[in-house]
Amino acid sequence: MTAATETQRDDGLLLTTMPPRPAQVRLAAAVVLCLLAALAAAWPFARMPLDATEPLLPAYAAAILITDLITAVLLFGLFAIERSRAILALATGYLFVAVLVAPWLLTFPGAIDAGMTEATAWIGAARRVGFPLFVLAYATVKDTEPAFPNSPVRGARLVAAATLATVALAALVVAVALAHPGLLPRLMRDDTRMSSAWMVVASLAMALYAVDLALLWRRRRSLLDTWMIVVICTLAIELTLLSFLSSGRLSLGWWAGWLCGLASASILLLVLLSETTTLYVRLARATIAERRARAERLTAVEAFSAAIAHEVNQPLASMVTNADAAMRWLDRPRPDLGEARGALERIAADGHRASQLVASIRAMFRSGAPVRAPLDLTDLVASVLRCQQGEARIGHVSVRADLVPGLPHVVGEPVQLGQVVANLVANAIDAMAGITDRARIVFVQCRSVATEVVVSVADSGPGLDPADRERVFEPFFSTKDSGMGMGLAFCRTVIESHGGRIWAADNAPVGAVFSFALPADVPEAPQ
Ligand code: ADP
């Protein structure tokens, strides 16, 4: 894999760089539309007082605190992985507004002391103006940021330092709001109604939201950018309800605004959680797929090695048989040089066959087609049977053949196809090793059927269990003590790579018959 593709894949996996899917963009737009509809619905009733709802405030504040805090923790976690200044800015923003929720609630008129109206308002103002400033930092450092050096110690320290600085800043805001109410302009006319100075703060926050939206819209590339647009829209709707439409604290518009605030706090949290789960599932699937691919690669390597061992073993066994026979002919009181020479010639032929076989197996597993040419299957079968005379004799098997001359040629690789025939005959001889109550016969037939040339090898052995008729062609399926189960798998690979078919059936009255069919090479009729 090239470095470029690797990077592209990483881009698709990180939340901050992952582009939004069309469905996610549609969902984000739907959320904004729903909130606008809620704004329109609440508008006519926004000034209705709901004083009796004051006891709900702690529950509301707790919900905001928890969601903002969890979002901040998740974003800090993301920063620890990605080391992006932008994410750090966003995480700090969420932490800042979370930390200010507790003093906001505690200073709310009536919670501890009725005289803290201004402190509550200034803490609220710091939250309203502070958060869009952090988002501004997120949107502006996003593209130009150099990643922090990739050291875990540095990341953890940065998170700790950012947390401490944020808490200190929040503490400063609270201290100023509490200690010097006289120094600051009055934001509240009384415990519930906002002053014109609050309108300035609200307008400043609205202006910052507008700048945030413009920046995020211009750079919207990632899923995070898309959802931050929704968050800012929600905050703008919240502030409109709270400050411009409601009659003051604890009115319907004020509560509707805070509910929007809760939605805004939850949006990013939900997105982070759902995307993290999606990524986790994707990662788990990728791991499983990779494990399976590795297992398949291993099986292919095993199959390749076993195929070579299996196929080369046959000529080697034949060479040993012929060497034994040659020695017996020479050991006689009057050595039979003619027979010994015949056996030596078969050894030499087997040696050539083994080396050709290795070359042809290598060619089969290499990319690129092996050299194929039109050939006469009848000749090929006859030459294979000549080579297997020794094995047949030792197994007390009589080999009969019905080889009609003049059949159409087929296009193929002779060594591979010869080995297929040799495998089928060797299997037939093996299958009859335990037969003692009838003649051991192998009957090889070559015939032309429709547009194909069919070769079949029938025996008088035990035959096949119907359940095994397909399984015998699978790699490593063997019922023999020393079998590797690669012979028929090799045959199927070769025949199918020649555009043919191979199958097993029952022989009548006993035994099995293995056949393969290859397309006849019919010369094109002259025009
Ligand atoms: P191996 O010879 O190493 O077992 P093969 O793939 O050549 O591997 O054969 C797989 C199995 O198919 C054999 O173990 C045997 O059970 C079955 N088989 C193959 N040929 C015959 C046959 N002519 N008669 C009965 N069973 C056969």
Structure, explained:
This protein is α+β, with helices and mostly antiparallel strands. It has 3 domains: 3-288; 293-365; 373-519, Heat Shock Protein 90. The chain has helices at residues 3-13, 22-42, 57-82, 85-99, 101-106, 117-141, 152-179, 196-218, 223-245, 252-331, 337-365, 377-387, 389-394, 414-431, 487-497; strands at 373-375, 398-403, 410-412, 441-449, 452-459, 501-506, 512-519. It has a 5-stranded mixed sheet. Strands 1-3 form a two-stranded antiparallel sheet. The structure holds adenosine-5'-diphosphate (ADP). Adenosine-5'-diphosphate binds at residues 423, 427-428, 431, 459, 461, 464, 472, 477-480, 483-489, 512.
Number of strands: 7
Write down the overall geometry.
rod-shaped
Listing every helix as H and every strand as E from the N terminus to the C terminus, the arrangement reads HHHHHHHHHHHEHHEEHEEHEE
Number of helices: 15
Supply the number of structural domains: 3
Any low-confidence stretches, pLDDT <50, length ≥5?
1-11
Mean pLDDT: 83
